[in-house]
C-alpha cells in the first residue's frame, strides 16, 4: 500500500526512493545525503525508507532505518540506531507537537489546563511559556463549544489540536465531531477543510471508574470523513502526532492513560509516520494477532509464553483504526491463515467487530479457522481492581485463544 | 426635520421624512435615472425606532446613505423576496426536497448586514440561509460565508472559532454568528459566549428573533425573551430587524465594538411570513391577522420602496420594471437549475476525505466493489 504522505505540499519532485534491505542496515554515504538537505524520512513499517523533499525541514538528515526493534532485527537495529535519545511517551508526544508548532505558525492547541498547568498528562508542558496563551489556549470546561471553536478555527485555515482531558469527555462534543468535523468537507463540496487533530487519553486505567475508562473508538468509527489512529510506543506516538497535524483531514489520535510513562529510544532526526499504516511488531508464521494501543503489551507478554510453548505468532499493531490497513493485514492473513484480534474496545460494535467483518469479507478464502476476537466485556468498567482486570483481556486469555486457533 | 407633504401621492407614511419636495414627473424622470446610481448625494434617514442597549452606548438613530445604496437595497431585497417565493412554488412542485426554511420577511437583516461589512468579515448562520448566502454573493470561502448548518445552535461555537482564527491571524475582521430565538436557549451558545468574552474574540452574535422557535412562541420557550440582555456581562443591542438601515447601523457599530472590546450580541427584531419550514403552515401557533398586520406595517421591502419613492430616486414604474427584471432573472435561474444534471453515482464518494486512500467501498450486499474512495 502506497504511503500516502499528507500535508507536505512539496512542489519539488519526490527524489528516487532508496529502498534499504532492512536486514543489512546499510547507511548511505554522507555525501549522497548532503544533497537532500531538506528531506524528510518516511519510515515504513516494513523497514523501507523513502526520502521526500520538503521545504519545511531544516536539518540535513542522517539516515535512520527501522528504529522499532523487531524480533528479527533486534540486535542489529540497536547498534545501528544507538544515536537517538530516550524519552517517555508523553515527552515524545510533546516533542512531536513542539516540532510542528515550530514549523507551522498555524498550529495551535486548545483544551482544559493545557496552558499554564502544562497539561493533565504533561503533554503540553512549558509550551504556553514558549508560544503564548493564544497558541496554547486554556479553555473553560465546555467540550462541546471548544471543540466547535476548534473546528471553526480550522475552517479559517488554522490547524488546531483539541485536547480532551479524557477521551470520555469528548462524548459531550459528539455533535460537533460527527456533524461538523466529519461532514463539512463533504457537504461543502470540498471547499472547507478541517485539518483538526482531536486527541486525548482514553482506555481502562487503574481503577479510574466507569466514566473515566471510556473507549470511544467504537463510537467514532462510523463517522465518515474522519481518520482515527491509536499510538502505543513513544516512537509511533511522535510520528503519528506529527502526521496527524500535517494531515488535511480531521484526525482523532487515541492515546492510553497507562502508556504515558513508557520509555523508548527514538531517533534524533525528524520523522513522520504514515497515518494509514499498520506496524509489524513481531513477524511470525503460525497466527496473526491484530491489536492496538495498550493491548499490544498484553499480546507481547502472551507472545513470550507462546514462543516458549513453540508457537510463532505474528503480531501487528494496526495503529490505523479508520481506515484499516488491509494491505498489511491481508498479507499477514495470507501467510498465517489464522487471525486473532485483541482489543480493549467493547465487544459490541467495537473496532474488533468491524475488523472481523472486514477480514471475513476480503480474505475469507485464506482463513483456516474462524476469526477469534478478544475484547473487553460489555460492562461499565468496575472500580474494584479484580473486576476491572476481568473486564479487560489478559495475556492468559490470549494464550488460550491462540492455542485454540492453532489446533 | 420638517415634514414636507407631497401633494401627488396620499400613501406616504409618517415614518418617512423626505428631504426634497417632489412634484411634476417629467423633469424628474431624467433626474431620477441619474440619481439612481448617484453615489455622492447623502440622504439622511432616521431609523424607525431607537436602539435599546444593554451595557453599551446606543448608536445614533440617524443613518447616512446614498441613492445608489437605497436602490441596491431595494434590488437585493426584492431579489431575495422573489427567490424565496419561487422556492415556495418549487417545493410544492416537489423540485426542492427535504426541508425548506424560507427567509421572506427577514431580508432586511441580510441586506443591512452586508452593507456594513466587507467580504473579509465572516458570516455563519443556521439553515434559514438562502438570502444570507445570496447577499454574500453566492460563494463560500471567497465571500466569507461559512454556511449553512443543520443542527440548531451548533454554528455558534463554529462562529467563535472563526473569530478565534481572525484574532490569531490579526486580520482586523469580525465574525457574525447568526442564530434564532430558538437556538438562543442552547447551552453551547453561552459556553461560546463565555470563551469569546474571556479572550476578546471579535465575534458578534446576532439573534434573528422572529419570535417563534418553529411552533413555540418565544415567551413559551425563554424565561427571559430579552435576548440582547442574556449575554449578561456581554453588551447587547436590540435592533428593529425590519429596517435595513437600523440593521446597517447596528452592524457597523458592532464591528467597531468587537474589534476593540470583544463580543457583542445583536438582537434583530424581525418576522418570518412563512412557517418554520415548508412543512409548517405557520398558522397553527399564530393568527393570520398577525402575519398580515406585520406585512402591512413593517415589511422591509415596502419600507425601502417608500423611501425610494419619497426621495424621488425612482418612479413607481421604474421599481416595477426592476421587479419584473428580477423575476425574469430568478426564472432563468430556475430554468437553469431544472436543466442541470443530477450527480453521477460515482460522486457519492467525492470529498469524503481531502486525500483519498484507495479504500474500497462496497454496495449494500457487500459483494460488489462499488468504488475506490478517491
From TrEMBL, chain A:
Catalytic reaction annotation: N(6)-[(R)-lipoyl]-L-lysyl-[protein] + pyruvate + H(+) = N(6)-[(R)-S(8)-acetyldihydrolipoyl]-L-lysyl-[protein] + CO2
Record-level GO cellular component terms: chloroplast
EC number(s) reported in the record: 1.2.4.1
Main location: plastid
Subcellular location, record wording: Plastid, Chloroplast
Single annotated GO MF: metal ion binding
Recorded coiled-coil stretches: none
Transmembrane segments: none
Superkingdom: Eukaryota
InterPro entries in UniProt: THDP-binding, Transketo_C/PFOR_II, Transketolase-like_Pyr-bd, Transketolase_C
The keyword Disulfide bond belongs to this UniProt entry's keyword annotation: no
Entry cofactors: thiamine diphosphate
Pfam families, A to Z: Transket_pyr (PF02779), Transketolase_C (PF02780)
Keyword list, A-Z: Chloroplast, Metal-binding, Oxidoreductase, Plastid, Potassium, Pyruvate, Thiamine pyrophosphate, Transit peptide
Top EC class, one word: oxidoreductase
Entry keyword annotation includes Lipoprotein: no
All copies of domain Transketolase-like pyrimidine-binding, residue ranges: 87-262
Alphabetized PANTHER family for the sequence: PYRUVATE DEHYDROGENASE E1 COMPONENT BETA SUBUNIT (PTHR43257), PYRUVATE DEHYDROGENASE E1 COMPONENT SUBUNIT BETA (PTHR43257:SF2)
Subunit structure: Tetramer of 2 alpha and 2 beta subunits.
Described purpose of this protein according to its UniProt entry: The pyruvate dehydrogenase complex catalyzes the overall conversion of pyruvate to acetyl-CoA and CO(2). It contains multiple copies of three enzymatic components: pyruvate dehydrogenase (E1), dihydrolipoamide acetyltransferase (E2) and lipoamide dehydrogenase (E3).
Protein name per the record: pyruvate dehydrogenase (acetyl-transferring)
Organism whose genome encodes this protein: Quillaja saponaria
UniProtKB/TrEMBL annotation, chain B:
Entry annotated with the keyword Kinase: no
A Pfam family the protein falls into: E1_dh
Keyword tags: Oxidoreductase, Pyruvate, Thiamine pyrophosphate
Residues of the Dehydrogenase E1 component domain: 75-140, 143-345
Keyword Repeat: no
Cofactor: thiamine diphosphate
InterPro entries noted in UniProt: DH_E1, PDH_E1_Alpha_Subunit, THDP-binding
GO biological process, one term: pyruvate decarboxylation to acetyl-CoA
Domain of life: Eukaryota
Classification via CDD domains: TPP_E1_PDC_ADC_BCADC
One term of GO molecular function: pyruvate dehydrogenase (acetyl-transferring) activity
Name this polypeptide is given: Pyruvate dehydrogenase E1 component subunit alpha
Organism per entry: Quillaja saponaria
